[in-house]
Amino acid sequence: MLGPNGAGKTSTLEMLEGMNDIDGGSATINGLNVSQNSYEVKKIIGVQLQANEYFDRLNLIELLILFGKLYSQEIDPITLLEGVNLAEKANAKPEELSGGQKQRFSIACALVNNPKVLFLDEPTTGLDPQAKRNLWQLIRDLNSDGMTIVLTTHNMEEAEYLCDRIAIMDQGKIVAEDTPQNLILKYAPEPPQAALHGNIEDVFLVLTGHELRD
How many Cα atoms within 13 Å fall on the side-chain side of residue 32? Predict the structure, then answer.
């Protein structure tokens, strides 16, 4: 889901997540009407926000256990941390994490209830290329395991790489929705200049390595 500013896509997400009332139309998640079953919807979704605040005296294990209790779930925090490549930081506090690590931990928090649908709000904003590509792989792995992921982003490369379908928003309204390939064929079949090579980000990764630095 893409938009030129944050207002339209943010309010839309909040409606889907049951955080705001739906002001027009209807929405269904996994067969549940969001307006009529907001509590049941919250049980089957996970939400990763662009910015998060945590209890600063708790380490990652303690925070995951706390979030699990909020869902009445007995969780295995180490398994969750392993899934986002943070097991070695299990006893660290959030303030001790790098930007990429914080984003991966926020996804781990969103997975405590084993959601059917995961909402990600611009998950790679501000990350360096290694951290971004690592997070992309995590998102693809979760999707391959059967989880539906709703992603908002201003990064067109990210949308094309990760999404099976893209909805483009303008002034709070969806102006186009289709697969990335069909959108390109319909609206931009002739690029200004054919790409004959990779981009500067690819050069950066080749020169500095693909391994995660954080």
Answer: 19
Chain segment 112-166, per-residue pLDDT in tens: 999 999 999 999 988 999 999 999 999 999 999 999 999 999 888 899 999 999 9
CB of 167 closer than 8 Å to CB of 1 = yes
pLDDT of the residue at 179: 93
Half-sphere exposure (Cβ direction) of 139: Cα atoms closer than 13 Å:
26
Sequence-separated (6 or more) residues with CB below 8 Å from residue 33: 26, 27
For 15-64, give the DSSP string. Answer: HHTTSS---SS--EETTEETTT-HHHHHHHEEEE-SS----TTS-HHHHH
**Fold annotation for 9-19+32-208:** Rossmann fold (3.40.50)
Ranges under pLDDT 50 in the chain: 2-6
Classified as helix, coil or strand, 107 is helix
Q: Where are the domains of the chain?
A: 9-19+32-208
Distances in Å between the Cα of 193 and the Cα atoms of 93, 161, 190 are 47, 20, 8
CB-CB neighbours of 28 under 10 Å: 13
